[in-house]
Write the structure tokens for this entry.
Amino acid sequence: MADNKRLFDTAVQKLKYDVLKAIIRNEYEHCYDNIYMDIPKEISPGPKATMRCCIFKERAIVQERIKLALGGDKSNPNIVEVIDIACDECPIGGIFVTPACRGCIVHRCKEVCPRDAIQIIDHKAVVDKSKCIECGKCTQACPYGAIIHQKRPCVSSCKVKAITVGEDKKAVIDNKKCISCGACVYQCPFGAIVDKSLIMESIDILKKSDGGKNYHVYAVIAPSIVSQFKYAKIEQVVTGIRKLGFHQVVEAALGADITLYHEAEEWKEKGTLTTSCCPSFVMFVEKNFPELAKYVSHSVSPMVEAAMLIKRTDPKGKVIFIGPCASKKLEYKLPKTEGAIDSVLSFEELQAFLDARDIDVGSLEETSLDNASFYGRIFAKSGGIAQGIADVAAEYGVEGVKPIAMNGIDECRAALMKLKMNRATENFFEGMACDGGCLNGPLCLTHGPKNAVDVDKYGASAKEKTIDNSVKLYKLSLGNQDEAPQAKE
Amino acid sequence: MVVKVCVGSSCHLRGSYDVIEEMKRLVKKYGVEDKVDLQASFCMGNCQNGVSMLADEVLVHNANKDNCEELFLTEIYPRLSK
């Protein structure tokens, strides 16, 4: 069990991983007669249930997880899906007085309530649901902690209010509001909301390349990867990825350098700009602030930029992105990406893939990884682009950029509201849907404050301290051999 | 002739960008801009002998900014006239 603890934050991630690992193994070794029968029995051997009411339900849920691992419901365009039978129908009681209420005489709960929703009946606090606005003040005021706020973790995790409770008490995702950020995937304690996997497509791409004989498959890895595989060096992870059949591992941070260059140029023209590298943030703007969509940068995301660069140097090549992100699984299909990305995997899926192929990353030799600059690498954390744009603009002689880092959807909403009302003092808006940035993405193996430290270290270790060489490479790939604008020393 | 300079991680660390700059200079110096299409490539699987260049089908090893002119004159320039 120590091993599992090392890999993941939660038991739900472990469950998802077990399913993925089993189907990947089967894809290569054909070890099951019937995956829908055999894998659930392996994961829930019984005779006693460990997670649900009975092993039959456990196994039925595992079957649903297998479906999602194989790609999920194709008729649903969203990448995030609810497994109905896994949803435990959590209570939605709102503010609830528990039997711990002592019937005191000070009634702090009643005093603090802004809507007069608490009455004392038979010495005990009683909440009038018709008046209660669920502000939670009483829960903090009670000296016994006797009042609790019952809220579904999925509902509270969803900052765009896309999750509601259906008539049958199951969670329902409103695709019109959902920005596929994946917060609910990580937050649901029953693992009832899951991202669809593209692992089968990815394996197909790798198999058909026949070890690079037919075409090369490139892995573009998100910079947040450095905080993920704690038991190994990043250089060993790169070796591991190549052992899976990839020709070469390229940093998405290289694309980030180029994105940064484009954004500085674009800002010079427009004067006000938001970033576009977080697809959930872009969806958030489009769905909630359509009038501000004109400010969203037209530059493609680092993932796409890196992939386009690869395809210009190797037109027959295929590119698979590996990252912490659920919405990248949607982004890669958008028309503006021009098909640069062929598939997307998560860090969770990468871990399952490596283990299913019996690749022990910690024992591998190291392969160097260095394509990008310091700035490209710190894109992974909130504030990274804001820091980068200011310096890059100065490097290229662009003045007047006032960046703000909007960390998580709540901050995005507040800053965009100001922009909408013409009250913003900044003119460059970095938007990231996940709190803390990509290094806290929903499909990360581990989440935590140390991740930011790892990303900073990784940034600092980059050979290139400016984006100059990345930009030169970009121009070279376009066949434009003119000098890139010279950066000032 | 297409000349690809490897910009994979290993070659990058050994100075691919210097080699690219030097190649650009040499192409101009010898007046073969119309004959050489300089490109980049991610990894040629020749990491032990980087920086690697691929001049059409010919792999050029161990390039650096100091020996670049020599390599250009022995490995690349003679093949151009054909």
Chain B has a mean pLDDT of 90. Chain B touches chain A at residues 4, 7-10, 12-13, 17, 20, 24, 37-43, 45, 47 (CB under 8 Å). The longest strand of chain B covers residues 2-6. Residues 16-29 of chain B form the longest helix (14 residues).
